[in-house]
């Protein structure tokens, strides 16, 4: 479903969740070319303040994009901006839940501002805000 600007209102929310696998880390490293050993080498990860491997922060942030593109506002939505604050590490085996919530509808400019958050259980791992341009309603 796609939500058009006249269908959006503050408080509307949508979420998705994904469990991070070893394959996800390898595939994300290949696509992004981010081969930091903190993500791929357990022995190296043990020597870091995290005590083991952690997922790429942008992998978890990508789940925010999935909610925006697939659910709210939905297909045809254009990302205009995003802030991200990384609050805690995500590890292989963790289930990341991304949630977006409409904060403000700017109908005159066909824009919507949303709060964005990713959690693992009760722990916030990413928080931020984004600005989106929902698709225009097709001409009748």
UniProtKB/TrEMBL annotation:
Domain MaoC-like per the UniProt entry, residue ranges: 14-112
User: Which UniProt keywords are listed?
Assistant: Lyase
The record's Gene Ontology biological-process terms are: fatty acid biosynthetic process
Sorted alphabetically, which Pfam families does this protein's record hold?
Answer: MaoC_dehydratas (PF01575)
Which GO molecular function annotations are given, in alphabetical order? (3R)-hydroxyacyl-[acyl-carrier-protein] dehydratase activity
PANTHER family membership: HYDROXYACYL-THIOESTER DEHYDRATASE TYPE 2, MITOCHONDRIAL, HYDROXYACYL-THIOESTER DEHYDRATASE TYPE 2, MITOCHONDRIAL-RELATED
Q: What is this protein called?
A: MaoC family dehydratase
């Amino acid at each position: 479903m796609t939500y058009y600007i006249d269908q959006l209102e503050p408080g509307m929310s949508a979420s998705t969740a994904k469990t991070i696998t070893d394959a996800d880390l390898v595939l994300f490293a290949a696509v992004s070319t981010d081969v930091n050993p903190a993500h791929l080498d357990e022995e190296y990860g043990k020597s870091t303040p995290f005590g083991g491997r952690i997922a790429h922060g942008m992998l978890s942030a990508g789940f925010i994009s999935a909610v925006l593109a697939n659910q709210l506002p939905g297909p045809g939505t254009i990302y205009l901006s995003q802030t991200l604050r990384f609050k805690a590490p995500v590890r292989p085996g963790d289930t990341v839940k991304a949630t977006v919530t409409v904060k403000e509808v700017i109908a005159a400019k066909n824009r919507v501002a949303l709060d964005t958050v990713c959690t693992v259980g009760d722990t916030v791992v990413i928080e931020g805000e984004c600005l989106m341009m929902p698709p225009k309603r097709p001409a009748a």
